[in-house]
Design goal:
282 residues; Rossmann fold; DNA polymerase, domain 1; two-stranded antiparallel ribbon; 4-stranded parallel β-sheet; binds zinc ion; single chain
Protein backbone atom coordinates (compact mmCIF):
# COMPACT_ATOMS: atom_id res chain seq x y z
CA UNK A 1 0.00 0.00 0.00
CA UNK A 2 1.06 3.55 -0.65
CA UNK A 3 1.90 5.79 2.22
CA UNK A 4 -0.18 8.91 2.14
CA UNK A 5 2.64 11.44 2.22
CA UNK A 6 0.47 14.50 2.49
CA UNK A 7 -1.19 13.10 5.60
CA UNK A 8 2.10 12.21 7.23
CA UNK A 9 3.47 15.68 6.61
CA UNK A 10 0.59 17.15 8.56
CA UNK A 11 1.00 14.67 11.40
CA UNK A 12 4.73 15.12 11.77
CA UNK A 13 4.31 18.86 11.93
CA UNK A 14 2.71 18.47 15.34
CA UNK A 15 6.06 17.42 16.77
CA UNK A 16 7.99 20.41 15.50
CA UNK A 17 8.84 23.04 18.03
CA UNK A 18 7.75 26.56 17.21
CA UNK A 19 10.66 28.62 15.97
CA UNK A 20 9.59 31.88 17.55
CA UNK A 21 8.20 32.80 20.96
CA UNK A 22 4.40 33.17 20.61
CA UNK A 23 4.51 36.00 23.17
CA UNK A 24 7.33 38.26 22.02
CA UNK A 25 8.34 36.89 18.62
CA UNK A 26 12.01 36.33 19.39
CA UNK A 27 13.73 33.21 18.09
CA UNK A 28 13.56 30.31 20.52
CA UNK A 29 16.80 28.66 21.61
CA UNK A 30 17.43 25.11 22.60
CA UNK A 31 19.61 24.97 25.68
CA UNK A 32 22.42 22.45 25.73
CA UNK A 33 21.30 19.08 27.01
CA UNK A 34 17.61 20.01 27.08
CA UNK A 35 14.70 18.96 24.92
CA UNK A 36 12.68 22.15 25.34
CA UNK A 37 13.15 25.39 23.48
CA UNK A 38 13.25 28.58 25.48
CA UNK A 39 12.67 32.23 24.83
CA UNK A 40 15.83 33.99 26.00
CA UNK A 41 14.45 37.49 25.61
CA UNK A 42 15.00 38.18 29.32
CA UNK A 43 14.23 41.90 29.27
CA UNK A 44 11.56 42.04 26.59
CA UNK A 45 9.26 39.03 26.94
CA UNK A 46 6.33 40.22 29.04
CA UNK A 47 5.03 36.88 30.40
CA UNK A 48 8.57 36.07 31.54
CA UNK A 49 8.95 39.43 33.26
CA UNK A 50 5.58 39.09 34.97
CA UNK A 51 6.29 35.48 35.98
CA UNK A 52 9.64 36.42 37.47
CA UNK A 53 8.16 39.19 39.60
CA UNK A 54 5.18 37.07 40.64
CA UNK A 55 7.58 34.40 41.83
CA UNK A 56 9.67 36.99 43.69
CA UNK A 57 6.66 38.33 45.64
CA UNK A 58 5.11 34.89 46.28
CA UNK A 59 4.34 33.69 49.79
CA UNK A 60 7.39 31.45 50.24
CA UNK A 61 9.70 34.06 48.74
CA UNK A 62 9.47 37.77 49.63
CA UNK A 63 5.76 37.49 50.53
CA UNK A 64 5.03 41.14 49.81
CA UNK A 65 1.81 42.16 51.52
CA UNK A 66 -0.55 44.29 49.48
CA UNK A 67 0.92 43.14 46.18
CA UNK A 68 -0.93 40.47 44.22
CA UNK A 69 -0.33 38.85 40.87
CA UNK A 70 -2.80 41.17 39.10
CA UNK A 71 -1.11 44.29 40.43
CA UNK A 72 2.19 42.96 39.11
CA UNK A 73 0.66 42.72 35.64
CA UNK A 74 -0.61 46.31 35.94
CA UNK A 75 2.81 47.53 37.08
CA UNK A 76 4.57 45.77 34.20
CA UNK A 77 2.03 46.97 31.63
CA UNK A 78 2.48 50.53 32.89
CA UNK A 79 6.27 50.09 32.43
CA UNK A 80 6.81 50.88 36.10
CA UNK A 81 8.51 47.58 36.85
CA UNK A 82 10.35 45.08 34.71
CA UNK A 83 12.59 43.44 37.26
CA UNK A 84 12.02 42.57 40.96
CA UNK A 85 14.53 45.28 41.94
CA UNK A 86 12.34 47.93 40.29
CA UNK A 87 9.75 47.36 43.04
CA UNK A 88 12.06 49.21 45.42
CA UNK A 89 12.02 52.33 43.25
CA UNK A 90 8.22 52.72 43.36
CA UNK A 91 6.54 55.54 45.22
CA UNK A 92 2.90 56.30 45.94
CA UNK A 93 2.56 58.83 43.10
CA UNK A 94 3.70 56.16 40.61
CA UNK A 95 1.09 53.62 41.60
CA UNK A 96 -1.96 55.76 42.42
CA UNK A 97 -2.93 56.15 38.74
CA UNK A 98 -3.17 52.35 38.36
CA UNK A 99 -6.60 50.83 37.82
CA UNK A 100 -8.54 50.48 41.11
CA UNK A 101 -5.59 51.61 43.23
CA UNK A 102 -6.91 53.54 46.23
CA UNK A 103 -4.71 55.72 48.46
CA UNK A 104 -4.88 53.15 51.27
CA UNK A 105 -3.87 50.19 49.11
CA UNK A 106 -1.09 52.23 47.53
CA UNK A 107 0.26 53.02 50.99
CA UNK A 108 0.02 49.36 52.01
CA UNK A 109 1.84 48.27 48.90
CA UNK A 110 4.74 50.63 49.56
CA UNK A 111 4.88 49.49 53.20
CA UNK A 112 4.82 45.84 52.11
CA UNK A 113 7.68 46.40 49.68
CA UNK A 114 9.67 48.17 52.40
CA UNK A 115 9.01 45.33 54.89
CA UNK A 116 10.35 42.75 52.42
CA UNK A 117 13.83 44.15 53.09
CA UNK A 118 13.72 42.20 56.37
CA UNK A 119 12.91 38.84 54.76
CA UNK A 120 15.72 36.35 55.52
CA UNK A 121 18.42 35.53 53.00
CA UNK A 122 17.23 32.01 52.10
CA UNK A 123 13.85 33.36 50.99
CA UNK A 124 15.40 36.15 48.94
CA UNK A 125 17.59 33.50 47.33
CA UNK A 126 14.51 31.42 46.52
CA UNK A 127 12.80 34.55 45.16
CA UNK A 128 15.58 35.14 42.62
CA UNK A 129 14.07 32.32 40.58
CA UNK A 130 17.32 30.50 39.78
CA UNK A 131 16.43 27.40 37.75
CA UNK A 132 16.21 24.25 39.89
CA UNK A 133 16.60 26.28 43.10
CA UNK A 134 13.39 25.61 45.00
CA UNK A 135 12.65 26.47 48.60
CA UNK A 136 14.64 23.59 50.10
CA UNK A 137 17.68 24.01 47.86
CA UNK A 138 17.71 27.76 48.63
CA UNK A 139 17.79 26.94 52.34
CA UNK A 140 20.61 24.47 51.88
CA UNK A 141 22.68 26.94 49.85
CA UNK A 142 22.03 29.84 52.25
CA UNK A 143 23.07 27.73 55.20
CA UNK A 144 26.18 26.43 53.51
CA UNK A 145 27.50 29.64 51.90
CA UNK A 146 26.01 32.11 54.41
CA UNK A 147 26.12 35.03 51.95
CA UNK A 148 25.31 35.72 48.33
CA UNK A 149 28.85 36.91 47.67
CA UNK A 150 30.29 33.55 48.82
CA UNK A 151 27.65 31.68 46.81
CA UNK A 152 28.32 33.74 43.69
CA UNK A 153 32.01 32.84 43.80
CA UNK A 154 31.45 29.08 44.18
CA UNK A 155 32.67 26.85 41.37
CA UNK A 156 30.53 24.04 39.93
CA UNK A 157 32.74 21.48 41.74
CA UNK A 158 32.41 23.37 45.00
CA UNK A 159 28.62 23.58 44.67
CA UNK A 160 28.33 19.93 43.77
CA UNK A 161 30.21 18.96 46.92
CA UNK A 162 27.38 20.41 49.05
CA UNK A 163 25.04 17.76 50.45
CA UNK A 164 21.92 17.36 48.25
CA UNK A 165 23.26 19.57 45.43
CA UNK A 166 23.57 17.71 42.13
CA UNK A 167 25.27 18.70 38.91
CA UNK A 168 22.11 20.20 37.37
CA UNK A 169 21.61 22.61 40.27
CA UNK A 170 25.35 23.35 40.54
CA UNK A 171 25.59 24.32 36.87
CA UNK A 172 22.42 26.38 37.03
CA UNK A 173 23.60 28.36 40.09
CA UNK A 174 27.04 28.87 38.56
CA UNK A 175 25.51 30.13 35.30
CA UNK A 176 23.10 32.44 37.12
CA UNK A 177 25.91 34.35 38.79
CA UNK A 178 27.72 34.74 35.47
CA UNK A 179 24.74 36.20 33.66
CA UNK A 180 24.72 39.99 33.24
CA UNK A 181 21.01 40.33 33.99
CA UNK A 182 21.26 38.41 37.24
CA UNK A 183 24.47 40.16 38.32
CA UNK A 184 22.69 43.47 37.84
CA UNK A 185 19.58 42.26 39.70
CA UNK A 186 21.58 41.02 42.69
CA UNK A 187 23.68 44.17 42.97
CA UNK A 188 20.57 46.35 42.80
CA UNK A 189 18.82 44.28 45.49
CA UNK A 190 21.96 44.68 47.58
CA UNK A 191 21.91 48.45 47.15
CA UNK A 192 18.25 48.59 48.25
CA UNK A 193 19.12 46.80 51.49
CA UNK A 194 17.72 43.29 50.94
CA UNK A 195 19.04 40.51 53.21
CA UNK A 196 21.70 38.84 51.11
CA UNK A 197 23.48 37.07 53.92
CA UNK A 198 22.44 35.11 56.99
CA UNK A 199 21.51 37.37 59.88
CA UNK A 200 23.73 37.51 62.96
CA UNK A 201 20.98 35.78 64.94
CA UNK A 202 20.77 32.92 62.45
CA UNK A 203 24.55 32.55 62.49
CA UNK A 204 24.73 32.71 66.30
CA UNK A 205 22.22 29.88 66.71
CA UNK A 206 24.02 27.62 64.28
CA UNK A 207 26.30 24.88 65.50
CA UNK A 208 27.58 21.69 63.97
CA UNK A 209 26.91 19.53 67.04
CA UNK A 210 24.63 17.26 65.02
CA UNK A 211 26.64 17.33 61.78
CA UNK A 212 26.22 14.09 59.86
CA UNK A 213 23.32 12.92 62.02
CA UNK A 214 20.17 11.70 60.29
CA UNK A 215 17.37 12.03 62.80
CA UNK A 216 13.77 10.82 62.77
CA UNK A 217 11.27 12.76 64.90
CA UNK A 218 8.05 11.07 65.92
CA UNK A 219 5.20 11.63 68.37
CA UNK A 220 4.05 14.60 70.45
CA UNK A 221 6.51 16.66 72.52
CA UNK A 222 6.15 18.65 75.74
CA UNK A 223 8.91 21.26 75.92
CA UNK A 224 9.14 22.24 72.27
CA UNK A 225 6.77 21.76 69.36
CA UNK A 226 7.59 19.27 66.66
CA UNK A 227 8.43 22.02 64.17
CA UNK A 228 10.69 23.74 66.73
CA UNK A 229 12.44 20.44 67.30
CA UNK A 230 13.03 20.09 63.57
CA UNK A 231 14.38 23.66 63.44
CA UNK A 232 16.77 22.85 66.29
CA UNK A 233 18.09 19.82 64.41
CA UNK A 234 18.51 21.93 61.31
CA UNK A 235 20.25 24.81 63.11
CA UNK A 236 22.69 22.42 64.75
CA UNK A 237 23.76 20.79 61.52
CA UNK A 238 21.64 17.63 61.68
CA UNK A 239 19.26 16.36 59.06
CA UNK A 240 15.62 15.51 59.69
CA UNK A 241 14.59 12.38 57.80
CA UNK A 242 11.04 11.10 57.59
CA UNK A 243 11.40 7.36 57.78
CA UNK A 244 13.57 4.99 59.76
CA UNK A 245 16.23 3.08 57.87
CA UNK A 246 19.60 1.52 58.61
CA UNK A 247 21.12 4.96 57.91
CA UNK A 248 19.15 6.66 60.69
CA UNK A 249 21.40 7.90 63.52
CA UNK A 250 18.63 7.93 66.12
CA UNK A 251 14.95 8.46 66.70
CA UNK A 252 13.62 11.21 68.96
CA UNK A 253 10.42 9.78 70.42
CA UNK A 254 7.59 11.84 71.88
CA UNK A 255 4.29 10.67 73.35
CA UNK A 256 1.87 8.64 71.23
CA UNK A 257 4.48 7.51 68.77
CA UNK A 258 3.21 4.82 66.41
CA UNK A 259 4.16 1.32 67.66
CA UNK A 260 5.34 0.25 64.20
CA UNK A 261 7.94 3.02 64.14
CA UNK A 262 9.29 1.98 67.52
CA UNK A 263 9.36 -1.64 66.40
CA UNK A 264 11.26 -0.78 63.25
CA UNK A 265 13.84 1.25 65.21
CA UNK A 266 14.31 -1.64 67.63
CA UNK A 267 14.62 -4.17 64.81
CA UNK A 268 17.33 -2.11 63.13
CA UNK A 269 19.08 -1.32 66.41
CA UNK A 270 18.49 2.44 66.02
CA UNK A 271 18.82 4.28 69.37
CA UNK A 272 15.60 5.84 70.68
CA UNK A 273 16.00 9.15 72.56
CA UNK A 274 13.48 10.93 74.74
CA UNK A 275 12.79 14.61 74.15
CA UNK A 276 14.86 15.55 77.20
CA UNK A 277 17.87 13.44 76.35
CA UNK A 278 17.87 14.96 72.87
CA UNK A 279 17.67 18.54 74.22
CA UNK A 280 20.52 17.74 76.63
CA UNK A 281 22.79 17.11 73.64
CA UNK A 282 22.51 20.72 72.46
ZN1 LIG B 1 9.33 35.53 24.50
Amino acid sequence: TNVDKSKRAVDSKKFEFPEFCPECGSKLQRLEGEANHYCLNYNGCKPQIIGRIQHYISRKALDIEGLGGETVTLLVNASLVQDPADLYTLNIEDILPLDRMAQKSAENLILGIEASKQIPFERVLFGLGIRYVGETVAKTLAKHYKSISALSEATVENLEAVDEIGIKIAESVYAFFRNDNSIRLVSRLYSYGLQLELSKAALANQTSILAGDRIVVSGVFEKVSRSELKKLIDANGGKVVSSISAKTTYLVAGANMGPSKRQKAEDLGIPILTEQSFLDKL
